Amino acid sequence: MSTITTEQMRFWSPEVRELEPYVPGEQPKIQNLLKLNTNENPYPPSPKVVEAVQAVLANSADVLRLYPDPDASALKQAIAKQQHVDVSHVFVGNGSDEVLAHIFKAFFVQELPILYPDITYSFYPVYSQFFGVKTKVLPLNDDFEIVVDDYKQPNGGIIITNPNAPTSIALGLSAIEEVLQANPDSVVVIDEAYVDFGAESAVALVEKYDNLVVCQTTSKSRSLAGLRVGFAIAQPHLIAALEAVKNSFNSYPIDRFAIAAAVASFEDQEYFEAQNEKVIASREKLVAQLTELGFKVLPSSANFIFASLSSKDAAELAAELRERGIIVRYFNKPRINQFLRITIGTDEQNQRLVDTLKNDILA
Ligand SMILES: Cc1ncc(COP(=O)(O)O)c(C=O)c1O
């Protein structure tokens, strides 16, 4: 950005000149890197996913010249089956980031502001600016929990990440129901990017509430961040709005490889469950080890933890870990600038983190 001059910027739309884009976690090229900064899964996807991609590849001379199914029907069917909903309740997009973008456009451009917590997924303010959505930011309490009563005021929509990111703390379904019941005329979006690591999914409430949209991704619990497939579950009148936005933007967001691979993933429930259990077990072990080292770790229902150490500045700690090839996420933001967000790796990877802290940095 800094190399673009004001004179060159005269070609840009005025609105684009004002944008403050989302900054993704870095994907560095460092040898012997331990990458615990973007909440990717340390395990590979189901072997059936790899087979499905190879099958498309084997057929590529025939099929790649053709557009994929604009409706990604096979993928919607597979998601509907796995989530126990009717296929009319499913929307798919190029990563849940794209699904969220369509959600902001479809539901949140209103007279009243949307409500979301002060500490949450940092894409929400970006989309709000991008689509001209008004916002009212509500502080989490001192324990970094959502205060449900704050979400009982006039609004143009609500978005809650559950479990929240980067705090990792989950909200129970009864609290979510309270929010839904208090807001019958607003769309309530629950972003469940990390739900499979121990939180309760609000998909169970979709039949009951005509104002609920649940958004999920294959990037974390299905080890498919590189594939870019996300989805939303809601009643058909809300799905129709998302389809209208999608078909006004990009009719073919999911390519042939992504459709085949994601279908294979949703069909392999056994692998999915076993892998998530492994991540959860590694998380509990890591939390115990870090607590022993003096860290305060927030209660996590995600594939990452949010931890602070009173004896050492978090930015310095992140920098010292980085010098040793271990990358974690540090946010230089009010209230959370003494925390590190650490993605759960394999037991071996987590042990490297603990050993580096114990024997090297904190010794
Ligand atoms: C809370 C939350 N929602 C959505 C996403 C987007 O995931 P994706 O676009 O990979 O599906 C992320 C990614 O980190 C996230 O943390």
Automatic annotation (TrEMBL):
MF-aspect GO terms: histidinol-phosphate transaminase activity; pyridoxal phosphate binding
Record-level GO BP terms: L-histidine biosynthetic process
Cofactor: pyridoxal 5'-phosphate
Catalytic activity annotation: L-histidinol phosphate + 2-oxoglutarate = 3-(imidazol-4-yl)-2-oxopropyl phosphate + L-glutamate
Annotated metabolic or biological route of this protein: Amino-acid biosynthesis; L-histidine biosynthesis; L-histidine from 5-phospho-alpha-D-ribose 1-diphosphate: step 7/9
Residues that bear N6-(pyridoxal phosphate)lysine: K220
Record-listed E.C. numbers: 2.6.1.9
Keywords in alphabetical order: Amino-acid biosynthesis, Aminotransferase, Histidine biosynthesis, Pyridoxal phosphate, Transferase
Keyword check for Magnesium: no
Broad class of enzyme this protein falls into: transferase
Keyword presence, Transferase: yes
Domain Aminotransferase class I/classII large: 32-357
HAMAP family from the UniProt entry: HisC_aminotrans_2 (MF_01023)
PANTHER family in the record: HISTIDINOL-PHOSPHATE AMINOTRANSFERASE (PTHR43643:SF3), HISTIDINOL-PHOSPHATE AMINOTRANSFERASE 2 (PTHR43643)
Family: Belongs to the class-II pyridoxal-phosphate-dependent aminotransferase family. Histidinol-phosphate aminotransferase subfamily.
Subunit-structure text: Homodimer.
Protein's UniProt name: Histidinol-phosphate aminotransferase
Species: Acinetobacter kookii
